[in-house]
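for the recovery benchmark. tokens below, seq after
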């Protein structure tokens, strides 16, 4: 039943597509974009206020109640500042790069289920303007692959921003940022592959449908390890502390966006915080049941969205907590963590889960399957560590720094 529901897609698009359906889709796009922008504005205020409380500072407290309009004031200021274009920049790519950084974050958010009642035989369907639909912009059958694709496209925005600036310092910063993002992409994908293996679907709505009880949440069904790997890899992908080496304070320049000013710099700034909100929503969808939760008093359709927002706020708080407490890693520590620890761990755990599920389906001995999975995972880790050690030794012998 879950597979059929996942394969069916949004019921809004199952029949004839008329003008009403197009307008409903456009309405969902506009509402999702507005909610995401408001969420980004509140996220920036929340981070500044929470870090100020953790560090015994005041934080924003002038613009609006409790300073909640400070982000809006900063955005208006950046919008009216002079826009600078470097003399040696490739102007078309220079203007395009901020959009390549921001648009993937919004497209990723479009496949996240935001609500809908998942109870009493109702798989998250809501009734809007006389049509049944999901409370998400789109539910493609390969939704989670779209998330990974958008994560990869975001690398282009960073790389092209540094390359098109016509300066060597932003170029060096963009190369470093791209290497960091690509290095953690593999661990991120392996963690997602484990979730897909357990859920039997690539649809984000289908993944939420499968997590019908607390014990069926993927964070439990996958054994917690993929969630930890995904959280660490996502933090590195987002260039968030302790992996914020792209824009480290001790650097002479600020990285790939050094030459940007005015609204184009604001787009990079918005993209960074929009990615935090979007990635928190993806974590909730993949591992914590999405909008699923107990239906308490009042209308049933309210509580799924409330539970979803509460779960997202928990992970936003976690990211802010990381920033306020964890020291920054060195670049070699960052690369070692990704290649030597996270990738072997995620790959080995994927093998273990695969063998355990195969043993359950074929009535094999589960203990033997687990031992075989651990052995294969350990072998992969040893081979990868040996390859990296040999490469490092060869570079040091040839006189190059690693």
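predicted aa per position
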């Amino acid at each position: 039943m879950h597979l059929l529901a996942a394969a069916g897609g949004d019921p809004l698009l199952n029949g004839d597509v008329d003008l009403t359906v197009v307008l409903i889709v456009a309405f969902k796009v506009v509402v999702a974009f507005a909610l995401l922008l408001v969420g980004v504005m509140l996220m920036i205020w929340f981070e500044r206020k929470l870090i100020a409380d953790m560090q015994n500072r005041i934080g924003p407290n002038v613009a609006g109640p409790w300073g909640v309009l400070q982000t809006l004031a900063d955005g208006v200021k950046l919008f009216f500042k002079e826009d600078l274009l470097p003399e040696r920049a490739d102007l078309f790519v220079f203007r395009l790069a901020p959009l390549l950084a921001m648009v993937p974050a919004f497209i990723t958010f479009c496949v996240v289920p935001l609500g809908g009642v998942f109870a009493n035989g109702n798989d998250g369907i809501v009734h809007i303007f006389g049509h049944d639909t999901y409370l998400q912009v789109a539910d493609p059958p390969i939704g989670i692959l779209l998330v990974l694709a958008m994560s990869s496209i975001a690398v282009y925005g960073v790389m092209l921003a540094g390359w098109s600036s016509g300066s060597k310092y932003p170029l060096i910063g963009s190369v470093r940022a791209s290497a960091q993002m690509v290095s953690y992409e593999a661990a991120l994908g392996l963690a997602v592959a484990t979730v897909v293996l357990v859920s039997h679907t690539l649809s984000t709505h289908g993944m939420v449908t499968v997590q019908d009880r607390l014990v069926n949440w993927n964070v439990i069904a996958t054994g917690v390890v993929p969630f930890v790997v995904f959280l660490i890899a996502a933090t590195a992908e987002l260039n968030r502390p302790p992996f914020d080496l792209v824009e480290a304070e001790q650097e002479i320049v600020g990285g790939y966006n050094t030459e940007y000013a005015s609204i184009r710099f604001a787009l990079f700034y918005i993209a960074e915080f929009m990615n935090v909100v979007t990635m928190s929503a993806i974590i909730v969808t993949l591992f914590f049941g999405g909008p699923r939760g107990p239906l308490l008093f009042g209308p049933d359709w309210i509580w799924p969205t409330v539970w979803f927002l509460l779960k997202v706020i928990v992970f936003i708080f976690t990211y802010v907590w990381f920033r306020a407490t964890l020291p920054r890693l060195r670049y070699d520590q960052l690369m070692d963590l990704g290649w030597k620890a996270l990738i072997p761990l995620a790959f080995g755990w994927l093998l273990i889960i695969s063998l355990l599920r195969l043993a359950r389906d074929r009535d094999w001995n589960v203990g033997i399957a687990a031992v075989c999975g651990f052995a294969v995972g350990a072998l992969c880790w040893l081979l990868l560590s040996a390859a990296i050690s040999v490469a490092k030794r060869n570079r040091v012998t040839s006189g190059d720094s690693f």
